[in-house]
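for ur thesis appendix - oxaloacetate tautomerase. copy paste whatever u need, i formatted it the way the template wanted (i think)
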Amino acid sequence: MANAANIQNFVKFGRKIVCIGRNYKDHIAEMKAALPTKPVVFIKPATSYIQQGHSIVIPPECDDLHHEVELGVVIGSLARNVEQSSAMSFVAGYCLALDMTARDLQQDCKTKGLPWEIAKGFDTSCPIGEFIPAEKISDPHDLDLWSVY
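the 3d part is after this line
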């Protein structure tokens, strides 16, 4: 496990944000998308992080910005090809996160068969809250999440 100071400052030391899309049935229905049989994985670069007190910079070509409230899971040590039974042992903590999406840019990319990182991975596209150590949340599957803006 990385040292506690580095974990709490994951924004500075984190190298990427691994996201799982289409993991919420109501949102899948809202987007008129098919329920995936495997996780839909996409990456946001570390430049996507933005902390409280800073502003989201909307891409100038975006006219339709959406947000989704997410539980950010902070991985505390190197984890590759982890078995489901041991996955939680890699979790150092959590944070509230927003997944900002330029929906119009995303739709344009999808229509053209292009990757849609430009719509999800722009700088400041992942506002996050404070780090919460894993031991403070007894069941991460039983949380109510919301944001006020």
